[in-house]
Amino acid sequence: MGWYDADIERVIITEDELRAKVSELAKQVATDYESVDGLLLVCVLKGAVMFMADFSRALAAAGGPAVELEFMAVSSYGQGTTSSGVVRIIKDLDRDIAGKHVIVIEDIVDSGLTLSWLLRYLESRSAKSVDVVALFRKPDAIKVPVPVKYVGFDIPNEFVVGYGLDYSERYREVPFVGILHPDVYSR
After folding, report:
1. Would you place residue 75 in the very low, low, confident or very high pLDDT band (cuts 50, 70, 90)?
2. Which residue, 149, 137, 171, 185, is CA-closest to 50?
3. For residue 4, is it within any domain?
4. What is the pLDDT of residue 77?
5. Contact at 8 Å (CB) between 73 and 123?
6. Among 14, 21, 33, 132, which is most buried by a count of CB atoms within 10 Å?
7. Domain region containing 73
8. Is 165 among the domain residues?
């Protein structure tokens, strides 16, 4: 029981299901990248931070290559619940990625607008390869097709929170993923 219980309409992905899927995704990446010297994991802040922490540990446990962690913050939401399509870099990469195998660690792909922009941006910086691991995808919300090599869960086109996903900077610490009750964001 948590402070957020009354705000969650229903749970769609449990903590155990999240843990199992993160492990499964890490094993896939470990297998696909077994012959590379190292990977640069780029976490898209803030939403993917929980996923990045768990994924990087699961990747090591799966025998994956050595990783370096990098963080980037972009925004197309502001305080709303849908993407505006206008992307702003809030925090850029701290290093050169030229010649590196980059894996973007993304929490959720909904419209695809932000991720599409981000992939073009990273490719313009001469990475050796750029792939995406997204824990969640909303197939019914996609406006721009984006190449996401690894997807954890396809979820309904509803407003979800938990495991890093937020509404107005709240609910990120919720250990499961749930549908936010519409009364919360229509107040």
Report:
1. confident
2. 171
3. no
4. 56
5. no
6. 132
7. 16-155
8. no
The Cα–Cα gap between 161 and 178 comes to 6
| pLDDT band of 163, cuts 50, 70, 90 | very high
What string of DSSP letters covers 53-104? HHHHHHHHHTTPPEEEEEEEEEES-TTSSS--S--EEEE--SS--TT-EEEE
Alpha-carbon distances of 142 from 17, 78, 156, rounded to whole Å = 24, 19, 12
Q: How many residues does the chain have?
A: 187
Residue 139 lies inside a defined structural domain of this protein: yes
* 148: nearest Cα among 110, 176, 179, 96: 110
In a domain, 185, yes or no: no
Going by their DSSP bridges, the two strands 160-161 and 150-154 should be labelled as unpaired
How many angstroms separate the CA atoms of 133 and 106, rounded? Answer: 6
Dihedral sign computed on CA atoms, order 166, 162, 170, 150: negative
CATH of residue 94 = 3.40.50.2020
Q: Reduce the DSSP state of residue 183 to 3 states and report it.
A: helix
For residue 112, CA distances in Å to 16, 76, 84, 141, 163 come to 27, 11, 11, 8, 20
Count how many domains the chain has: 1
In this structure, what is the dihedral angle of CA atoms 144, 148, 154, 158, given to the nearest 10 degrees? -40
**Encoded tokens for 175:** 């250990």
Residues carrying an active site annotation: 110
Sheet of 38-45: strand order equals 88-91, 66-75, 38-45, 101-109, 129-137, 150-154
